[in-house]
Amino acid sequence: MKPWTDADLERLLTNPEHQDNPLLPALEWLQQREQAQRKQLEKLLRIADCSDGIARSQTHELLEQYDKQLRRLEKITRISDRYQHSLMELNEQLKQAAQQDPLTKLANRRLLMARLGEEVERCRRGASPFTLVMLDADHFKRINDDFGHEMGDRALCMMAETIVQQLRGYDLCARWGGEEFLLLLPQTELEQACHIVERVMAAVRGVRLEKEEQLRLSISAGLAMYQPDENVDLTINRADAALIQAKKNGRDQLQIART
Ligand SMILES: Nc1nc2c(ncn2[C@@H]2O[C@H](COP(=O)(O)OP(=O)(O)OP(=O)(O)O)[C@@H](O)[C@H]2O)c(=O)[nH]1
């Protein structure tokens, strides 16, 4: 049997032949109810479609917001990485500045005293003794007077570089004062220290600053070997006294400290 359509039903209900059929009112009632239900269903479907659209656009909006937050977070992370990196660099620079002489870039007194403390400890634990060498540029005032303070600065830097080149990796050269340097030679007894210092003095004599052919440099040195249980300040003083003696003896030479 072919399915009933609305038109078939309408024809049946309006057919004068069936006007007296007792089922007619029931059929009309069923038709009206079916139409009402259909309308209701269509309405519900429209609402469902609409809310589906809203849900879709809300989801899209949320995804966009999420992407935006993610990009913002990535940007913040990049900035924070850069910030952390520059903080670390700054920290490193500060650390260096606290331990370095700004002119010659050598270790400063603070770093040398720290290393000296460690060396004394090592010596107390039975390692072989170390030697300290106080170095002082000769007649440096004349260099400044004859060639100018700026050239004096360059001469100091050249001297520092030359001294370091003659040392071993574990030795330390610090700028002690104006034109004074202090060498820490770990695990080095006097005889070996003398060889090192003679090498340093010879190298300083050979320094030539371009354009200033007349400029000649030399240094005097006082050596003191650390004595077990000696206060290290005393070792420094002994090296200093030996240096004064080297100056008195005519400069450009080394002198060994008395114990
Ligand atoms: N250009 C320059 N000169 C410095 C610096 N520090 C110290 N000096 C100079 O070094 C000279 C040291 O002079 P003095 O202590 O009289 O000693 P000197 O002329 O080297 O003579 P002796 O040590 O006796 O051989 C002074 O003229 C200081 O101004 C510095 O950083 N740069």
From TrEMBL:
EC number: 2.7.7.65
Keyword Coiled coil in record: yes
Domain GGDEF: start-end pairs: 128-259
Organism domain of life: Bacteria
Alphabetically ordered keywords of this record: Coiled coil
Catalytic reaction(s) noted: 2 GTP = 3',3'-c-di-GMP + 2 diphosphate
Any matching Pfam family: GGDEF
Coiled-coil intervals: 56-100
Family annotation (NCBIfam families): diguan_SiaD, GGDEF
Protein name: diguanylate cyclase
Protein source organism: Oceanisphaera marina
Taxonomic lineage from the root: Bacteria, Pseudomonadati, Pseudomonadota, Gammaproteobacteria, Aeromonadales
